[in-house]
């Protein structure tokens, strides 16, 4: 049995001063049968709900990436011991309201999800906690989470300029239930409010304008919380959690991350002759917008053996290369594929015709401004691309020149997206730094290479 202190993925304190570039070259075919690491969203939530449950939670397939390890470390410092044995992670839950103040600041590294979800947890505990993170996380907006949590009773004692990390907050044992209309479609904000609502006397309701990923709701029900969800006209949803909840430790298995599988799928689509099976991929309908869009573009993607695992649908995906055409991606689809737009834009560059991706305002506040970073990278690689308001428009010509150095802006998904572009481009593509890939997809380059990708 190893403590999370030794289990934590190695962090590189000099990361910002030691970039590690990598070059992708045109590759023959991407083929094989593989699995991708566990889903990041589910991994964070499993650790957090494990900490808030009574008794032990056993998690198989937890994503062993830096973002999730930061949450594991935070949960451990709050008194819910995290250990690992034979590939299973165990959390010793302390019950809702049972966590204790940490010794020092909680450092979430690059993780927006970990930090925002944990703000909701801390809000319902009478304790003072300092939240910090890396340079990218310290630029991201926290006001969207703080505003509803302050209404519930959280106090903010110190914050970075414009309401960013580093933040010092004081939670309360007397948190209040609220009904809150989300101004942005964000699963992170929804989840933070629901986690705070677990401690409140009464019902806490979040109304979302467009349905976002629902792993928190599914997992809360799995751990024994009383929860109601109601679909609203126009694609929205109201979710209510009953407070003073008692959660019970559970055993769960984390399926493969569809946002990581997206890079493999994209590579198989653009490298001629590819035939790839990605096994055990999460197929939750709030996460499958990328697959829907690719099918509209003409992609050959088959779902084999669709099954249920621990309250989430899972399947094996078979992808074959083939010609693609440009499509219009409606704004209401954005929440179900928000992390996949950079790699979709790359695929669109290899399609024939225009792909118009509408309503991407949220992309500007991810690990980098992904709207700008994606457009700049495509342009450097000779792709005709433009931004109109919050829309990204890519004119595909069936082939891409490449031959560029792409700036990743400390963003793992920009790095992976442009390495994929390089596998199909005529000339090699170098990305300036791949160290951030470890935040979500450890072993990405080795896995891609094992499938036939030319990365060095
Ligand atoms: C996530 C929600 C999304 C997504 C992020 C993970 C989650 O962010 O981009 O990678 O696990 O809840 P928003 O909720 O801010 O859209």
UniProtKB/TrEMBL annotation:
<comment type="similarity">
    <text>Belongs to the EPSP synthase family.</text>
</comment>
<dbReference type="GO" id="GO:0008652">
    <property type="term" value="P:amino acid biosynthetic process"/>
</dbReference>
<feature type="domain" description="Enolpyruvate transferase">
    <location>
        <begin position="26"/>
        <end position="445"/>
    </location>
</feature>
<protein>
    <recommendedName>
        <fullName>3-phosphoshikimate 1-carboxyvinyltransferase</fullName>
        <ecNumber>2.5.1.19</ecNumber>
    </recommendedName>
</protein>
<feature type="binding site">
    <location>
        <position position="41"/>
    </location>
    <ligand>
        <name>3-phosphoshikimate</name>
    </ligand>
</feature>
<keyword id="KW-0808">Transferase</keyword>
<dbReference type="InterPro" id="IPR013792">
    <property type="entry name" value="RNA3'P_cycl/enolpyr_Trfase_a/b"/>
</dbReference>
<dbReference type="InterPro" id="IPR036968">
    <property type="entry name" value="Enolpyruvate_Tfrase_sf"/>
</dbReference>
<feature type="binding site">
    <location>
        <position position="40"/>
    </location>
    <ligand>
        <name>phosphoenolpyruvate</name>
    </ligand>
</feature>
<keyword id="KW-0963">Cytoplasm</keyword>
<comment type="function">
    <text>Catalyzes the transfer of the enolpyruvyl moiety of phosphoenolpyruvate (PEP) to the 5-hydroxyl of shikimate-3-phosphate (S3P) to produce enolpyruvyl shikimate-3-phosphate and inorganic phosphate.</text>
</comment>
<feature type="binding site">
    <location>
        <position position="140"/>
    </location>
    <ligand>
        <name>phosphoenolpyruvate</name>
    </ligand>
</feature>
<feature type="active site" description="Proton acceptor">
    <location>
        <position position="339"/>
    </location>
</feature>
<dbReference type="InterPro" id="IPR006264">
    <property type="entry name" value="EPSP_synthase"/>
</dbReference>
<feature type="binding site">
    <location>
        <position position="366"/>
    </location>
    <ligand>
        <name>3-phosphoshikimate</name>
    </ligand>
</feature>
<feature type="binding site">
    <location>
        <position position="188"/>
    </location>
    <ligand>
        <name>3-phosphoshikimate</name>
    </ligand>
</feature>
<feature type="binding site">
    <location>
        <position position="45"/>
    </location>
    <ligand>
        <name>3-phosphoshikimate</name>
    </ligand>
</feature>
<feature type="binding site">
    <location>
        <position position="339"/>
    </location>
    <ligand>
        <name>3-phosphoshikimate</name>
    </ligand>
</feature>
<dbReference type="InterPro" id="IPR023193">
    <property type="entry name" value="EPSP_synthase_CS"/>
</dbReference>
<comment type="subunit">
    <text>Monomer.</text>
</comment>
<feature type="binding site">
    <location>
        <position position="186"/>
    </location>
    <ligand>
        <name>3-phosphoshikimate</name>
    </ligand>
</feature>
<keyword id="KW-0028">Amino-acid biosynthesis</keyword>
<dbReference type="GO" id="GO:0009073">
    <property type="term" value="P:aromatic amino acid family biosynthetic process"/>
</dbReference>
<feature type="binding site">
    <location>
        <position position="413"/>
    </location>
    <ligand>
        <name>phosphoenolpyruvate</name>
    </ligand>
</feature>
<dbReference type="Pfam" id="PF00275">
    <property type="entry name" value="EPSP_synthase"/>
</dbReference>
<feature type="binding site">
    <location>
        <position position="370"/>
    </location>
    <ligand>
        <name>phosphoenolpyruvate</name>
    </ligand>
</feature>
<keyword id="KW-0057">Aromatic amino acid biosynthesis</keyword>
<dbReference type="GO" id="GO:0009423">
    <property type="term" value="P:chorismate biosynthetic process"/>
</dbReference>
<feature type="binding site">
    <location>
        <position position="112"/>
    </location>
    <ligand>
        <name>phosphoenolpyruvate</name>
    </ligand>
</feature>
<feature type="binding site">
    <location>
        <position position="188"/>
    </location>
    <ligand>
        <name>phosphoenolpyruvate</name>
    </ligand>
</feature>
<feature type="region of interest" description="Disordered">
    <location>
        <begin position="1"/>
        <end position="36"/>
    </location>
</feature>
<comment type="pathway">
    <text>Metabolic intermediate biosynthesis; chorismate biosynthesis; chorismate from D-erythrose 4-phosphate and phosphoenolpyruvate: step 6/7.</text>
</comment>
<feature type="binding site">
    <location>
        <position position="40"/>
    </location>
    <ligand>
        <name>3-phosphoshikimate</name>
    </ligand>
</feature>
<dbReference type="InterPro" id="IPR001986">
    <property type="entry name" value="Enolpyruvate_Tfrase_dom"/>
</dbReference>
<dbReference type="GO" id="GO:0005737">
    <property type="term" value="C:cytoplasm"/>
</dbReference>
<dbReference type="GO" id="GO:0003866">
    <property type="term" value="F:3-phosphoshikimate 1-carboxyvinyltransferase activity"/>
</dbReference>
């Amino acid at each position: 049995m190893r403590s999370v202190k030794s289990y934590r993925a190695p962090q590189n304190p000099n990361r910002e001063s030691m970039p590690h570039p990598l070059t992708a070259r045109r590759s023959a075919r991407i083929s094989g049968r593989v699995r991708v690491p566990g889903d990041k969203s589910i991994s964070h939530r499993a650790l957090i709900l494990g900490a808030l449950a009574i008794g032990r939670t056993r998690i198989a397939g937890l994503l062993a990436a830096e973002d999730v390890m930061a949450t594991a470390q935070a949960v451990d410092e709050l008194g819910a011991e995290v250990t690992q044995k034979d590939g299973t992670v165990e959390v010793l839950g302390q019950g809702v309201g049972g966590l204790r103040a940490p010794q020092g600041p909680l450092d979430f590294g690059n993780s927006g999800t970990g930090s925002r979800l944990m703000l909701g947890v801390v809000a319902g505990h009478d304790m003072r906690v300092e939240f910090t993170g890396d340079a990218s996380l310290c630029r991201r907006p926290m006001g969207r989470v703080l505003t509803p949590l302050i209404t519930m009773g959280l106090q903010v004692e110190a914050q970075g300029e414009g309401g960013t990390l580093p933040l010092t907050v004081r939670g309360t044992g007397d948190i209040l239930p609220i009904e809150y209309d989300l101004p942005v479609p964000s699963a992170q904000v929804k989840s933070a409010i629901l986690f705070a609502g677990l401690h409140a006397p009464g019902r806490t309701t979040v109304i979302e304008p467009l349905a976002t990923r629902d792993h928190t709701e599914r997992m809360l029900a799995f751990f024994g919380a009383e929860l109601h969800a109601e679909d609203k006209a126009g694609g929205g949803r109201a979710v209510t959690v009953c407070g003073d909840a008692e959660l019970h430790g559970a055993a769960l298995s984390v399926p493969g991350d569809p946002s990581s599988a997206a890079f493999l799928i994209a590579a198989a689509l653009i490298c001629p002759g590819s035939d790839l099976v990605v096994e055990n991929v999460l197929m939750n309908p709030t996460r499958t917008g990328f697959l829907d869009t690719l099918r509209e573009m003409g992609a050959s993607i088959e779902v084999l053996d669709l099954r249920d695992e621990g309250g989430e649908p899972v399947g094996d995906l078979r992808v074959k290369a083939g010609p693609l055409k440009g499509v219009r991606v409606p704004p209401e689809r954005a929440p179900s594929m928000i992390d996949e737009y950079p790699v979709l834009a790359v695929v669109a560059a290899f399609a024939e015709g225009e792909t118009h991706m509408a309503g991407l305002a949220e992309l500007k506040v991810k690990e980098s401004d992904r709207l700008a970073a994606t457009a700049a990278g495509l342009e450097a690689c000779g792709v005709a691309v433009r931004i109109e308001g919050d829309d990204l428009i890519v004119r595909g010509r069936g082939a891409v020149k490449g031959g560029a150095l792409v700036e990743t802006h400390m963003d793992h998904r920009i790095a992976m997206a442009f390495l994929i572009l390089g596998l199909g481009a005529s000339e090699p593509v170098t990305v300036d730094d791949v160290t951030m890939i470890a935040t979500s997809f450890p072993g990405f380059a080795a896995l891609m290479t094992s499938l036939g990708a030319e990365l060095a």
